[in-house]
């Protein structure tokens, strides 16, 4: 009897092991709004690479919304294995909450930012208001769609790009504040995230111009059809880094650390950099960037560090409660 019980136990153990090995490994990537199409394609490529190199299947789940809202969800307990954001302040927030490593920018190359982007303008087909540069956005009668800088990195970068435009032309901080104040007086409603802004602009027909990431042009062409918008490159804009991090709290609990690291490491591969370029995310690979020179038009770019010290400093000065943004923006004021 003892021998038979041992045999049965062994058989059950083998069956359980077989079921476990047949189940796909899973990973949750919590990301920002306008990266959903890129990660859809990237996940397919990574799953194929992971299967080829490890023999294991992997199922990647995605969550997309405004980047700051996403960071708060993770801090509040959403079990992301990795976060892929569009602003370092959102990952710094998670680091301060003890959710990701304090030294997260050193865990991967290029300050843990495998791609970059910039802010440009999308106008309706034919550019009926003749939008060419930032100065056109503060003219009377021009309505601008923009993400709320409090809820999304998209909006923070748009705000900082407008502020930096004035500074790079020799203006003072007071002049920059006045300019950005005029810009936000032309904003009929603040969007929650990048995709919400695009929906407001194209489906609800709000506004004359949308300030958003360069990568959103490709997404719009795919989702709404080519020719719906014109992309306008301003004379000066901001370099936006797209940082990534492993969520230590989750991977330590789930034992998914190796998978999470492999997932983020592969973002730097030639294949992933090519996928990024096809989605109008600027690749870090110089070779891939050069191949797609027609997509990434040259314009004068400044860094956050150059004008604001760091995104963390910009957050304190401009976007925290009582900061510059609260001083210049009054909802409903014209």
Give the topology string: H per helix, E per strand.
HEHEHEHHEEHHEHEHEEEHHHEHEHHH
Specify the CATH architecture of the largest domain: 3-Layer(aba) Sandwich
CATH top level class name of the largest domain: Alpha Beta
Looking at the structure, what is the overall shape? globular
Gist?
With 334 residues, this protein is α/β, with parallel strands linked by helices.
Description:
With 334 residues, the protein is α/β, with parallel strands linked by helices. The chain folds into two domains: 2-115 and 241-291, D-Maltodextrin-Binding Protein, domain 2, CATH 3.40.190; 116-240 and 297-328, D-Maltodextrin-Binding Protein, domain 2 (3-Layer(aba) Sandwich), CATH 3.40.190. 48% of the residues lie in helices and 18% in strands. The protein is built from 16 helices and twelve strands. Helix 2 (36-54) packs antiparallel against helix 12 (270-278), helix 3 packs parallel to helix 4 (88-96) and helix 6 (153-168) crosses helix 7. Mean pLDDT is 91; it is low at 11-23.
């Amino acid at each position: 009897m003892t021998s038979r019980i041992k045999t049965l136990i062994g058989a059950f153990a083998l069956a359980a092991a077989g079921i476990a090995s047949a189940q796909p490994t899973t990973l949750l990537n919590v990301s920002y709004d306008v990266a959903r199409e890129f990660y859809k394609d990237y996940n397919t490529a990574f799953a194929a690479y992971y299967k080829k190199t490890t023999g294991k299947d992997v199922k990647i789940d995605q969550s997309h919304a405004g980047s700051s809202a996403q960071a708060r969800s993770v801090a509040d307990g959403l079990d992301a294995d990795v976060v892929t954001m569009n602003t370092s302040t959102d990952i710094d927030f998670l680091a301060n909450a003890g959710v990701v490593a304090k030294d997260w920018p050193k865990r991967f190359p290029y300050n843990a930012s495998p791609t970059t982007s910039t802010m440009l303008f999308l106008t309706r087909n034919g550019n009926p208001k003749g939008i060419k540069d930032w100065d056109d956005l503060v003219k009377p009668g021009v309505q601008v769609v923009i993400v709320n800088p409090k809820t999304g990195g998209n909006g923070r970068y748009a705000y900082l790009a407008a502020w930096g435009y004035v500074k790079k032309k020799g203006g003072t901080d007071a002049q920059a504040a006045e300019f950005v104040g005029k810009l936000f007086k032309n904003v009929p409603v603040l969007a929650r995230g990048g995709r919400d802004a695009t929906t407001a602009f194209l489906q609800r027909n709000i506004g004359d111009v949308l300030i958003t990431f360069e990568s959103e042009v490709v997404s719009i062409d795919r989702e709404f059809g080519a020719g719906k918008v014109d992309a306008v490159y301003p004379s000066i804009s901001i370099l936006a880094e797209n940082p990534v991090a492993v969520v230590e709290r989750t991977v330590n609990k789930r034992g998914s650390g190796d998978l999470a690291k492999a997932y983020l490491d592969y973002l730097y591969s030639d294949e992933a950099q090519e996928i990024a370029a096809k989605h109008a995310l600027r690749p870090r690979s110089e070779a891939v960037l050069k191949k797609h020179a027609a997509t990434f038009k040259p314009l004068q770019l400044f860094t956050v560090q150059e004008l604001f010290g760091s995104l963390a400093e910009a957050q304190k000065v401009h976007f925290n409660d009582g900061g510059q943004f609260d001083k210049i923006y009054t909802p409903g004021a014209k």
